[in-house]
Amino acid sequence: MTTVSAKDYEHNKKADGTYNVKIRVFQKGEKKLIDTPHFLS
């Protein structure tokens, strides 16, 4: 079973105060983070 979630991590905060959104995928016991071009403020 695959689990997908969107995350913003505190350690990824940019100087302008925005956070890069990453897609977190769990599959077969492995975790992968996928970068996106989206930012949150």
Give an account of the 3D structure.
This protein is mainly β and 41 residues long. Helix content is 0%, strand content 78%. It is built from no helices and three strands. The protein has a three-stranded antiparallel β-sheet, with no helix packed on it. The protein is elongated, with a radius of gyration of 12 Å.
Short description:
It contains no helices and 3 strands. By secondary structure, the protein is mainly β.
The DSSP helix count reads 0
Could you give the distance between the termini? Answer: 32 Å
Helix content: under 10%
Q: Hey, roughly how much beta strand do the residues contain?
A: over 45%
Category from helices, strands and their pairing:
mainly beta
- Which regions are unreliable across 5 or more consecutive residues at pLDDT < 50? none
- The gross shape turns out to be elongated
Strands side by side in the biggest sheet = 1-2-3
Report the order of strands and helices: EEE
Beta strand count? 3
Q: Whole-number radius of gyration?
A: 12 Å
Main sheet makeup: 3 strands, antiparallel
State mean pLDDT (0 to 100 scale): 91
